[in-house]
Amino acid sequence: MQIRESAEMYLETILVLSEKGAVRSIDIARAMNFSRPSVSVTVHNLEAENYIKISENGNITLEPKGREIAESIYERHNVLSKLLMDIGVSEETATNDACKIEHVISEETFSCIKKHIAEHH
What we know:
Layout lengths: L4 H14 L6 H8 L3 H13 L3 E3 L5 E3 L1 H23 L4 H11 L5 H13 L2
Helix pairs in contact: 1-2, 1-4, 2-3, 4-5, 4-6
């Protein structure tokens, strides 16, 4: 399932925020440091594409296909961050670099990284 990197970032952000409670557009704007109008446009596009659902009171929840993408990206983020920290990269740099890598790494490479980590831990 191919979607834009920015959409992946939104879905991942919604997933992380939803673990702490209800998610609204303002929460996404604050977490991503984006303006409310730009968040509103993207959120409505994600809803139109059935990645998320926006309730009448403005709460945002992931639809199954949105959750699948968000969980995949979040797993990549966590695995890549851990790998980078394991080889000596500072936590801040590892987290920032993982955010960049998680959207462009191939499924083959990511699978091999996960296998390598499983075999060596």
